[in-house]
Design goal:
The structure holds two protein chains of two kinds. Chain A is mostly helical. Chain A contains 20 helices and one strand. Chain A has four domains: 261 residues, no CATH class; 78 residues; 40 residues; 97 residues, no CATH class. Chain B is elongated, with a radius of gyration of 33 Å.
């Protein structure tokens, strides 16, 4: 019977157990790629059923490694175990290599061992098989040992230095090294880097590599989850019940997203780097040219309009200043490349340059000495100064433009608010005014009418003084004049709210006064 | 970006660019995408998670204080895992560990509730809250974040006193006094016939008109307990073996007396030479003598926070502060040990017209000698070795 703690540990080891399975499949991907590479390099090598052998040996390597690590045996015993293991593998491989062509071939070969054992026993086929299996076995053992270390880390009851984190780093490194080797091997085959003039017909090569990397991401997710669970256990943290499910869900989601990204993004460059740079520069130049033409056309139109207004008919017409052809933006020709190809190539090279930049920055950060040297030898000072000046110029211009636009808008607003009547309002506009503006409107209209009736307001007169003058002239409207003057002063200078009723009242007074003025003019 | 990832990425980029191998670029997108997605998730978590801690910031000894931590994800992206660790004071948590791992959906929130038990007076930081989050692949470095602590004040234990033997000479007070020296014009006792020598200001003209002979008002004599508590929290002035228990008892006595005096609607102040962790320079500022519940809470706040240490001797503080106090003020001096110089100072204070009550808290080696010295100088002295001894003022 397992203790409660042991049962819990077992349950929490499930992600790790899944990691073993994933690692196994990753190594199979690696084995298949290696078999294809060797078969491409050495066409005489017989790779028949080698995948099956790799499958068995990988399994054996995982199990044997776990066994050696699990059973606490002495170092000498472990060495004996490994020697026995390898002797068995070698014998198995020899038998497999010899029996593969048939039993007769095997018997014939055995008879030749007496003549020259070394030559006939260690055949090139056999040696290549040993090399392949050793490579595979070594990779499997590496993964198995690292995963075992994680397991050991969990079974300890407390955190120990870098512990699990270091193991995770090793696993990541191992995954990437093996993956990179696979990519390099595939690139070697596909691009025929050795000049063998043989392009392999392997439609499954890329999917196998992609599968390796995808499995690797799942592997990283599982090991990371196991590590974090272990850390949280050390801290006796209470873990949300559905966290495992959510972790799996989010990991699957991220993986799905990554597959989509990898499928959608461009994987070829139809246009070279320099050509892309040329297109970008051409594009920028054409935009600048377009803007310049637009500005000139605008200026020409303004000048010609002004000339017409001032009656300088001799001055050139706007057509002579503006571009003769209708203004339009002409993108640069891409020299036969389609827009999509150009876009994809642009993205690709931009990505390339950005990644290179990040890499250099990262490297310099890691090597401060080198960074200091680079700073010392290459004078960045002028570049930095130029950049600061350009930045300042842009900031200054932007600030000035923003300030002038803001002040212009403010001026417009204030002119509208302060002198609403100067622009010559019509009754439609009057109805849209607020009560305060309406009162001002009625008073100013009254002034105009009074002026027309022969009682103009003198410049030096205040509203009250003018009110007295007007009252002397229009004795029948004395009270109304006093009221409209007071209302105007209130609307013009007070800060409190002016009501609609007040405006209506002033309107009726205004109408009354206009009637009096009309009558007076009729009588005169 | 981890160095392990950078080199393969560069190699693949070079392969993609110069050997024109498209599948290398696919792998590159896969790896870089994994890193960038993880990085983006972490950044979102850092920016868009809000933390809020809700608790009552004041409690009395023995109370349970419920605390709630709200963690809110304001992002449209989920937070795969979020590790929360709340740092708690040992005195209140008693084995409680607030460590949680949660996963937050987009625009969701998690609430963590726990309870603290106020066992001992003090000024405790609740928090800070340490959080950690990252991606699900381990490619992005774990981001760590700290949410500042809130502070919880646990008031000292208050023993409800029913009577004390605190003297006062201050007139215009509100406590009745058996000596008719100071009459309080606000407390009318009775009216009587005028006798020669009575002040004309005390004549009740209305009553005189009714009765037909001169009547004078007689007032109730009263005293004011304008009190200042001097609390000694200098380690050197307590017996080394009992320093902790004695100083804590001194604080309990100070709190209980302040509570009693306030309940009698009298003014009380506090001067202590301990350190105050809530003030910037940790120094303690005296609380002047005031009335009212609000002022009592201020005193209790200070008594909750104040800490014993190697501080200025109380005798120096008495020398500086006592001359500034009004005539008739009662000085309650709570300390652990006294010597001859200390008694000399107390005698000087008495001579200035202020009352001195000496309270010795904790174990006193030379109790009888102290009593003798105090009685020879006419100083009231009380010895409290344990909280139980305060029952003398409870019954």
């Amino acid at each position: 019977m397992l203790s409660e703690r042991e049962a819990l540990l077992q349950k929490e080891r499930r992600p790790l157990q899944a990691s073993y399975v994933i690692a196994y499949f990753m190594i199979l991907c690696f084995a298949i790629t290696t078999i294809w590479l060797i078969a491409w390099l050495l066409p005489w090598w017989d790779s028949t059923r080698m995948a099956l052998v790799c499958l068995l040996v990988s399994l054996e390597a995982f199990l044997a490694s776990r066994l050696v690590l699990q059973v606490s045996i002495f170092r000498a015993q472990a060495i004996y175990f490994r020697i026995t293991e390898w002797l068995t593998i070698l014998v198995f491989l020899k038998v497999f290599t010899e029996l593969r062509p048939g039993v007769d071939h095997f018997l014939q070969n055995v008879s030749l061992w007496k003549q020259d054992f070394i030559t006939y026993f260690f055949t090139p086929d056999y040696l290549l098989n040993i090399f392949l299996i050793f490579l595979l076995w070594q990779t499997c053992t590496g993964f198995a040992v690292d995963l075992w270390k994680l397991e050991i880390y969990q079974s300890r009851r407390e955190r120990e230095g870098e512990g699990g984190r270091a193991v995770l780093r090793f696993l990541l490194r191992r995954y990437l090294v093996v993956g990179t080797l696979m990519v390099v091997a595939t690139a070697t085959m596909v691009q025929d880097l050795f000049g063998l003039h043989r392009v392999p017909d392997l439609p499954w090569l890329f999917p196998v590599i992609a599968l390796y990397f995808l499995l690797g991401l799942v592997f990283l997710s599982l090991t990371y989850f196991f590590f974090l669970r272990t850390e949280w256990n050390f801290e006796e943290a209470l873990v949300q019940k559905n966290l495992t499910g959510r972790w799996l869900f989010y990991s699957s989601l991220i993986l799905g997203g990554l597959i989509v990204i990898a499928l959608v993004l461009p994987t070829y460059d139809s246009i070279g780097l320099l050509a892309v740079v040329r297109y970008v520069v051409e594009f920028a130049v054409s935009i600048i040219a377009f803007l310049a033409a637009a500005i000139f056309w605008l200026m020409g139109s303004l000048i010609s309009g002004l000339a017409r207004l001032l009656g300088w008919n001799k001055l050139a017409s706007p057509a002579s200043v503006a571009p003769s052809a209708p203004l339009q933006f002409n993108p640069p020709t891409s020299g036969g490349a389609s827009g999509l190809a150009l876009g994809l190539s642009f993205f690709l090279w931009a990505f390339f340059l950005v990644l290179m930049g990040i890499a250099v920055r990262q490297y310099l950060r890691a090597n401060q000495k080198l960074a200091q040297e680079v700073k010392r030898w290459i004078s960045w000072h002028w570049l930095a100064t130029a950049w600061i000046k350009v930045k300042e110029l842009f900031q200054k211009t932007s600030l000035e433009v923003a300030t002038s636009v803001r002040s212009g808008i403010q001026r417009l607003r204030s002119s509208r608010a302060s002198s609403p009547l100067q622009a010559g309002w019509d009754i439609g506009k009057v109805l849209r005014l607020n009560p305060r503006q309406r009162i001002i409107f009625y008073y100013l209209t009254l002034l105009r009418r009074a002026e027309e009736a022969g009682t103009p307001r003198q410049k030096w007169q205040t509203p009250s003084e003018y009110g007295r003058t007007l009252s002397a002239r229009l004795s029948e409207g004395k009270e109304s004049i006093g009221e409209i003057t007071t209302s105007f002063q209130e609307a013009r200078y007070s800060r409190h709210e002016v009501t609609q009723e007040k405006a209506d009242r002033v309107k009726s007074i205004w109408e009354h006064l206009l009637r009096i003025l009309r009558d007076r003019r009729g009588r005169d | 970006m981890p160095a392990e990832l950078l080199l393969p990425l560069l190699l693949m980029l070079l392969l993609a660019a110069f050997v024109r191998s498209g599948f290398a670029l696919t792998v590159l997108y896969l790896l870089l995408g994994a890193y960038l997605l993880g990085w983006f998730l972490s950044q979102q978590a850092r920016k868009k998670i809000n933390y809020r801690r809700t608790l009552d910031t004041r409690a009395f000894t023995g109370e349970d204080i419920p605390v709630q931590l709200d963690v809110e994800n304001n992002s449209w992206l989920p937070v795969p895992w979020l590790h929360l660790y709340e740092s708690l004071p040992v005195e209140l948590a008693a084995g409680l560990k607030v460590r949680r791992v949660v996963s937050l959906l987009p625009h969701s929130h998690a609430a963590i509730s726990y309870s603290l038990h106020a066992t001992k007076r003090g000024f405790y930081p609740v928090g800070p809250l340490f959080t950690a989050f990252g991606d699900t692949l381990g490619l992005v470095e774990i981001q760590e974040f700290m949410v500042p602590a809130d502070h919880l004040t646990v008031y000292p234990k208050i023993i409800p006193l029913t009577h004390t033997a605190l003297p006062s000479q201050s007139p215009q007070g509100s406590l009745r006094h058996h000596q008719p020296i100071f009459e309080d014009p606000t407390r009318l006792l009775r009216k009587r016939d005028y006798t020669s020598g009575d002040s004309l200001r005390h004549v009740d003209w209305k009553a005189t008109a009714v009765v037909g002979r001169l009547q004078v008002k007689q007032y109730e004599p009263s005293i004011a307990l304008e009190t200042m508590i001097f609390l000694n929290l200098n380690t050197a002035e307590y017996l080394a073996r009992y320093v902790y228990d004695s100083s804590e008892l001194a604080i309990v006595i100070a709190a209980s007396l302040a509570n009693w005096i306030t309940s009698k609607k009298q003014a009380v102040g506090l001067i202590a030479n301990g350190s105050d962790p809530a003030s910037e320079d940790r120094s303690y500022r005296p609380l002047p003598s005031r009335k009212g519940q609000e002022h009592l809470m201020q005193i209790l706040d200070v008594l909750a926070r104040v800490q014993i240490g190697e501080r200025t001797p109380l005798i120096e503080i008495l020398r500086n502060e006592s001359p500034r106090l009004p005539w008739g003020t009662t000085l309650i001096i709570i300390t652990g040990q006294v010597n001859d110089a200390f008694f000399d100072e107390l005698f000087q204070i008495e001579r200035r017209g202020q009352n001195v009550v000496l309270i010795l808290a904790g174990y006193i080696g030379n109790a009888s000698r102290v009593r003798e010295q105090a009685s020879s100088l006419g100083i009231q002295v009380h010895l409290f070795q344990t909280e139980k001894d305060l029952d003398a003022w409870r019954l």
